[in-house]
Amino acid sequence: MNGDLPQEITSLVGREVYSNSGVFVGQVEDLRLDLDGETVTGLALASLNDELFNGRAAGARGVIIPYRWVRSVGDIILVSDVVERMKDGEESEEAAA
What is the pTM of this model? Predict the structure, then answer.
């Protein structure tokens, strides 16, 4: 089984990431790994949805989202709607100010 691991990990690179509700988040550019535990701990995303991140990633090459947010991996990767709630929370704070 360990022989299959590198192929599975590299197959994530280049896949598009969407929230559960179908909003494009970004594209996997790299992975954050825990080498001791031999697990993926995060997805490094590039080609971000600028509207979704609303300046939070301004000037950055991308963002890293925790792998625990991943809900499904197939032709695309689905993540929890936490990313969208971050955007909603930011808008609510601006409206309250």
Answer: 0.74
